[in-house]
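Thread: Newbie trying to understand structure tokens

Hi all, I'm a second-year student working on a class project, and my supervisor (Dr. K.) asked me to get a predicted structure for one chain before our next meeting. I've only ever worked with sequences, so writing a 3D structure as a token string is new to me. If someone could post the tokens and maybe explain what I'm looking at, I'd be very grateful. Here's the chain:
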Amino acid sequence: MKHTNRVLIIISIFISHLNVLLDVLVIYYKYKVIVNVEIKYNKLPPIRFSLNLSGQLLSNLNN
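---
Reply by user tm_fold:
Sure, no problem. This is what the structure looks like when written as tokens:
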């Protein structure tokens, strides 16, 4: 348990240091679950992509 807690703390510090914002929207569309993920880094354009439950990449929208 101590090892996993240490790893989680390291990961949280790493994420907060990079200032990464992760927005996830789950949309029920035609009885399928589609997950819209938006990742924003500090000095990079946002990365947007959609996934369904099978893990297929539906659309990759990079601005």
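A couple of things are worth pointing out once you decode it. DSSP finds one helix and four strands in the chain. Residues 20-63 form one domain. Feel free to ask follow-ups in this thread.
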